[in-house]
């Protein structure tokens, strides 16, 4: 019996309402999930997207939707595989053997099917045909967004790998990877450490990249979730910065009308910026430490930015005897032969030691290892070196100096020139006239400062192994009061004390050299 005109008009109005509802859902975030949920409620049966291999790709609750029962998901998967085998665009399968499955192919590559299991709606076929057009577009958009995020994540991890290679001294490998990603790494760089709100880190990194004209090498910090790191050619920072000497290998860049740090704090007021001096690319670790020290000053500076103005070159402490002392101190690690192939070797142990001295507990994120693995390696280092590097500031300061001297470019030649004799000691290394001059220069800003930011506060803190509660108790003041004094000392020194990397090792060595600890 043919339908009456009123029924036809009602069906058309109902179809128009359905198309309008689907169009509204398509404009939302998570459109595919919401459309499948609407179809599930509208038809009375679970609606899912199924790939041509039978994998359920999405349901009313998203991918791998637990709301879709296993029998229904299996029925949809089997039906999609069968329809793909037939090469048909749509069908109703499963009658007589279970609930019917309505399927229609979406215009996607690879083939994807919209399936509704056991629907109650007699107009299900028309409804799925209307939904398929909009759903296919939304699905392609979501797939494109997923691919974009994967590419962005891969590039981010590649850039992080380049930074890691620079930090461990593998400059040629870092340059090869950077050459493929662009921009190429310049021969002379400045390091920017930008402290910013964590949720806005990627947005701020993209903005800095855009403002720097693509000349900066920008990496969200793998250790500090609220830091963005940028390696910038000195000439990119404009006339306000001290530019290093240009070399033939430097890529040309157009200077900005103002220095990049000024530009950052003007455009993003929530940021604080620390800037290193211009250094050779191989000295990226030094540039990072300088920028962290500058950031400690920038946090309390009204202009919210600061450049590094100190000197962390501790190689002035050592002649041939110093390099020999460093070699002897680290010899148990250097000569260590792991019992199993999976155990860390000498380079991994030294890398772990350096990372932990710089980042503390955050070294697990820097090294991409579990915190329990980090703790086990530190216990192993304590046993090998024969001192409690994991607990004692004295042992940490000695190990920090030994690593700096051991990896210095002139270390091998200096060790070869060292005269034979008794084993060198740290006191002998710190007892030279050059060490005394260096130590007095390190402590002079504290000696000239007000008492609350002076030498005694820092000395008490160092005697307490840089533990703030113990230092506050020894000083007879509250914990916030001790923190405030050390923050003032940071401003006086222009160095980081309470965050890592910290100047505590240099200050401990300076006081030890002058006999004031």
The helix content, as a percent range, equals: 40-55%
Structural class: alpha+beta
Largest sheet: 6 strands, mixed
**What is the helix tally?**
20
Shape: elongated
Whole-angstrom Rg: 32 Å
CA distance, first residue to last residue: 104 Å
Q: Tell how many strands the DSSP assignment holds.
A: 11
Mean pLDDT: 82
Low-confidence stretches: 237-257
Residue fraction in strands: 5-15%
Fold and architecture overview:
The protein has 517 residues and is α+β, with helices and mostly antiparallel strands. It has 20 helices and eleven strands. It has helices at residues 5-26, 31-43, 70-86, 124-167, 171-181, 201-211, 260-267, 284-298, 320-334, 346-359, 363-367, 371-385, 393-406, 411-417, 426-430, 433-447, 455-463, 468-475, 479-493, 504-513; strands at 47-51, 56-58, 90-93, 101-106, 112-117, 188-195, 217-220, 227-232, 272-275, 279-280, 305-307. α17 packs across α18 (468-475) and α18 (468-475) crosses α19. The protein is elongated.
């Amino acid at each position: 019996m043919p339908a009456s005109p009123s029924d036809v008009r009602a069906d058309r109005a109902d179809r128009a309402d359905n198309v309008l509802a689907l169009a509204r859902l398509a404009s939302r975030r998570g459109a595919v999930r919401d459309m499948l949920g609407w179809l599930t409620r509208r038809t009375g049966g679970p609606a899912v997207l199924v790939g041509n291999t039978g994998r359920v790709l999405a349901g009313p609750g998203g991918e791998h939707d637990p709301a879709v029962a296993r029998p229904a998901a299996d029925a949809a998967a089997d039906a999609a595989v069968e329809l793909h085998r037939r090469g048909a665009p749509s069908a109703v399968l499963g009658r007589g053997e279970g609930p019917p499955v309505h399927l229609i192919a979406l215009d996607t590559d690879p083939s994807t099917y919209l399936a509704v299991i056991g629907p109650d709606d007699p107009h299900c076929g028309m409804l799925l045909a209307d939904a398929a057009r909009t759903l296919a577009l939304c699905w392609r958009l979501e797939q494109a967004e997923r691919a974009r995020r994967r590419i962005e994540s891969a590039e981010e991890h590649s850039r992080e790998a380049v930074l890691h290679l620079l930090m461990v001294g593998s400059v040629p490998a870092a340059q090869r990877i950077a050459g493929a990603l662009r921009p190429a790494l310049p021969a002379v760089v400045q390091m920017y450490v930008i402290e910013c709100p964590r949720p806005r880190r990627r947005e701020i990194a993209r903005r800095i990249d855009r403002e720097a004209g693509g000349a900066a090498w920008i990496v969200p910090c793998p250790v500090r979730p609220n830091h963005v790191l940028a390696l910038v050619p000195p000439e990119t920072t404009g006339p306000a910065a001290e530019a290093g000497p240009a070399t033939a290998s430097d890529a040309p860049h157009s200077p900005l009308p103002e220095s990049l740090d000024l530009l950052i704090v003007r455009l993003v007021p929530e940021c604080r910026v620390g800037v290193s001096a211009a250094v050779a690319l191989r000295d990226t670790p030094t540039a990072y430490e300088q920028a962290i020290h500058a950031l400690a000053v920038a946090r309390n500076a009204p202009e919210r930015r600061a450049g590094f103005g100190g000197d962390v070159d501790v190689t002035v402490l050592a002649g041939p005897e110093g390099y020999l002392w460093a070699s002897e101190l680290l010899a148990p690690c250097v000569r260590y032969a792991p019992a199993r192939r999976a155990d860390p070797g000498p380079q991994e142990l030294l890398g772990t030691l350096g990372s932990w001295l710089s980042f503390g507990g955050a070294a697990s994120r820097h090294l991409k290892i579990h915190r329990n693995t980090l703790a086990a390696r530190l216990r192993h280092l304590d046993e090998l070196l024969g001192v409690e590097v994991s607990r004692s500031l004295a042992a940490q300061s000695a190990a920090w100096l030994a690593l700096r001297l051991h990896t210095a470019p002139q270390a091998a030649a200096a060790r070869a020139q060292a005269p034979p004799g008794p084993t060198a000691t740290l006191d002998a290394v710190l007892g030279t006239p050059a060490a005394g001059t260096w130590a007095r220069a390190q402590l002079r800003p504290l000696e000239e400062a007000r008492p609350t930011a002076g030498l005694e506060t820092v000395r008490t803190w160092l005697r307490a192994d840089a533990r703030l509660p113990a230092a506050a108790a020894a000083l007879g003041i509250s914990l916030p009061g001790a923190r405030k004094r050390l923050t003032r000392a940071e401003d006086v020194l222009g160095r980081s004390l309470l965050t890592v990397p910290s100047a505590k090792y240099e200050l401990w060595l300076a006081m030890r050299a002058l006999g004031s600890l």
